[in-house]
Amino acid sequence: MTERPTVLARLMKLLGMLVLATALLAMAFHAPDRPLESLLSRWAEAPSDFIELPVGDGRTQLVHLRDEGPRDDAAPIVLLHGTAASLHTWAGWVSELKTERRVITLDLPGFGLTGPSVLGDYSDEAYDRFLQSFLTHLKLDRVVLGGNSLGGGIAWGYAARHPQQVAALVLVDAGNLAVASTSVPAGFQVPQSAVLRALARNFLPRPLVERSVKNVYGDPSKVTAALVDRYFELTLREGNREALARRLAQRTPGRFADLLPRIQAPTLILWGGQDRLIPPEAARIFQQQIPNSRLEIFPTLGHVPQEEDPLSTVRPVYTFLHSL
Asked: SUPFAM superfamilies given for it (predicted)?
C-alpha cells in the first residue's frame, strides 16, 4: 500500500526538478531584442556613420557604414559581409588597405546595426537593388567590389548585371551557387524550424552562437570571447533574428549561375580550404565560369578567411589590385 505513493512522490519530485531546471535554463538564455541605441557605444565606434538610404516606395533604410582612406580614389573598394555577420568582419583588411585605398564597408539589411529591411525583402534581387541605391547615394560610379559568403553572392551577381560599375571583383568564399554544405552552423538551422524560430525570438544561448562561429573557422581556437560577443550582441539587434529567418527562407542557390560568364571584371577568388559551409568545390566552379579570374586557396582557413587570418589573406588582394 505504501509503494504506490512512494513512486508517485518520486515522480512529483522529478517533475519538480524538471520544471526548476527549465526555469533556470530560461533565465540563463533569455535574450530579448535589444534596441539599436543600446549597441552603439560598443559596435559603432569611430569611424562608423549612418545614412538614410532611399530604397523605393518613398521609404528610407538606415544603413551603418564606415568610409575610410583617401577620398580621391578613382575606384573605391566596397566590401560586403556574409550571413549573420557585419562590417566588422573586414576590420583587418581595412586597416591594411586604407593606407592606399578608399575602403567602404557596411552592414547589409537584415544584419548588424543596419537591422531589418524596411521592405521585408531579402531576395537576391532586393540586395542587388539595395547595392545599386547605396552606390548611387555615395556617388560611386566605379568600384572594386568584394564580398564574403552572402556578400560574395551579391557581389558577383552585381558585377554581371552592372559591368560598367565594377572595375574589379574579389570573391571570398562566395555564396549563391548550388553546392552542398558538409556542415552547417547550428545557428543557421534554428530558423528552419517553426518551433525553434518562435523560441529564438526571446531566447538565444550564447554557447549556440559560439559553436556556430567555431564551425566556420578552420582553427576554432582562434575564436575569442570578444568575437563571440560581437556576433551574439549584433544578432540581438531588434529585428535581426526574424530577418535571418526570412533571408534563409528566400535563398535560391544556383538560380543565377548562368550569369557568371557575363562577368567582365578581373576577378580574384580567395577560399578557405577548410570551408565546410561552402566547400572549395564552389571556388573551382567560379574559376571555370568567370573568364578573367584567378584562384588562391588557403589550406588551413575556414569560411571567413578574411576574419580568421586578415594579414595572410589581404596580401594577394594587394598584389591583385596593383596588377590592374
From this structure: alpha/beta-Hydrolases
